[in-house]
Design a protein that fits this description.
Length: about 170
């Protein structure tokens, strides 16, 4: 009688993992970024959610992946699998997109010759801290760089405030 022999090599493949991190506060028009790092044997396929709404699946051969998005919410992973098996997911990230800064200015009024009139401004929304600039359209000049301005105009004047925040100006 005859017989044959053979051999096979089995490689243990641990379950893959995916860990999500990142997030933060972003200015209008920017893209938020959330990082995902994978273990296991690529390629990896994953799904993620923003406030429970599922996106994907996405497949990548890289062991790290960055989500660039402009949606405010809590990002989390839903599932991951690699070339061999399904795995476990961890982590979440909060992404917030701020509204553009808006400027509010106190009302003008009448001022007698030689008297001073005080005006104040405030920033609303955006990303503090705020900085303030006052501009006079009478002579097209910046007149003050502060939260308030005191003016003693010789004639009627138009003055406006520009409020800057970490993202830009209004």
């Amino acid at each position: 009688s005859s017989f044959g022999t053979g051999s096979a090599q089995l490689e243990y493949a641990p379950y893959p993992t995916a860990a999500l991190s990142g997030g933060g506060t972003f200015c209008p028009g920017e893209m938020g970024n959330v990082a995902i790092v994978f273990t296991g044997i690529g390629p990896w396929t994953f799904e993620y959610a923003i406030d429970g709404e599922v996106f994907g699946p996405i497949t990548t051969s890289s062991n790290s992946y960055t989500l660039f998005d402009d949606i405010t919410g809590t990002y989390s992973l839903v599932s991951v699998s690699d070339a061999n098996c399904g795995g476990t997911v961890t982590g979440s990230a909060d992404v917030v997109f701020n509204n553009p800064v808006q400027a509010a200015i106190s009302e003008g009024g009448g001022v007698c010759p030689g008297e001073f009139f005080d005006l104040g401004a405030s920033g609303i929304g955006g990303v503090p801290p705020y900085s303030y600039q006052w501009f006079s359209t009478n002579n097209n000049q910046w007149v003050q760089f502060d939260v308030s301005v005191s003016v003693s105009p010789a004639t009627s004047m138009d003055i406006y405030a520009v409020v800057n925040d970490a993202c830009g100006s209004e």
